[in-house]
UniProtKB/TrEMBL annotation:
Matching SMART domains: PKS_KR
A GO MF label: oxidoreductase activity
Keywords: Oxidoreductase
Ketoreductase domain location: 8-207
Keyword Oxidoreductase included in the entry's annotation: yes
Protein known as: SDR family oxidoreductase
Record's keyword annotation contains Transcription: no
Family to which this protein belongs: Belongs to the short-chain dehydrogenases/reductases (SDR) family.
Length: 247
């Protein structure tokens, strides 16, 4: 088993399902102890924890609504307390609210900004107090942050584009402390909320150069690289793992 992250501790927000679960498991496979947050999917979070423990790693699930700044801070601090430290933060939790600009109201706007923008900022702010030299902050954006090919994506696209600015700003601010900050933009990925055999999947896959959906493991592989020692000189980067969607 690869152990490039042996002795490291990671927190993956929204790590109970989909891409987040894939990332949590890959980091554990690479040697890290892992905490995951979840909002409602307690059973799924517990299943991810069991899978991580079966790999011989420590794991903990923390209930936290990423729209609640206090809950986000608590999740970061609890990870450091329970697992002894924090080396890697993966900002993965997000909401996907779509609709025409004249149909989405203030509630949808505030929820999207709270979870997709404020949540990662607060998590990074809290994590920065724990991270040392070699620390990593990796946020999960979206291909539609760079190319919104369907109508109804303006709000979500805006929120994910904000992560690029956060990434570059934090990279400058935290770089002198040896902490790297990067953004991964997945393309269409086969999850329970966006299945590769869904009603619009063929059209969506057609926008990629490879003509297919990614697996969560494809996204997780890039995150694991950025979390590891071989990416020590990569910071402030926006990496598209989208099968050529934005080509």
């Amino acid at each position: 088993m690869t152990t490039t992250l042996d002795g490291k501790v990671a927190l993956v927000t929204g790590g109970a399902r989909g891409i987040g679960a894939g990332i949590a498991l890959r980091l554990a496979q690479d040697g890290a102890d892992v905490a995951v947050t979840y909002r409602q999917s307690a059973d799924r979070a517990a299943a991810v924890v069991r899978q991580i423990q079966a790999l011989g790693r420590r794991a903990v699930a923390v209930q936290a609504d990423s729209a609640d700044p206090d809950a986000v801070r608590h999740a970061v601090d609890r990870t450091a307390i329970v697992l002894g430290r924090l080396d890697i933060l993966v900002n993965n939790a997000a909401v996907f609210l779509v609709g025409a600009v004249d149909e989405l109201g203030t509630d949808e706007l505030e929820q999207t900004i709270a979870v997709n923008v404020r949540g990662p900022y607060v998590a990074a702010q809290a994590a920065a107090r724990h991270l040392g030299d070699g620390g990593r902050i990796i946020s999960i954006g979206s291909n539609v942050g760079e190319r919104a090919v369907f109508p109804g994506l303006a709000l979500y696209s805006m929120s994910k584009t904000a992560l690029a600015g956060l990434t570059r700003g934090l990279a400058r601010e935290l770089g002198p402390r040896g902490i790297t900050v990067n953004l991964v933009n997945p393309g269409p990925t086969d999850t329970d909320t966006n299945p590769a055999d869904g009603p619009n999947a063929q059209a969506i896959a057609g926008f990629t150069a490879l003509g297919r959906y990614a697996r969560p493991a494809d996204i997780a592989a890039t995150v694991a690289h950025l979390a590891g020692p071989d990416a020590a000189y990569v910071t402030g980067a926006v990496i598209n793992v989208d099968g050529g969607f934005t080509s």
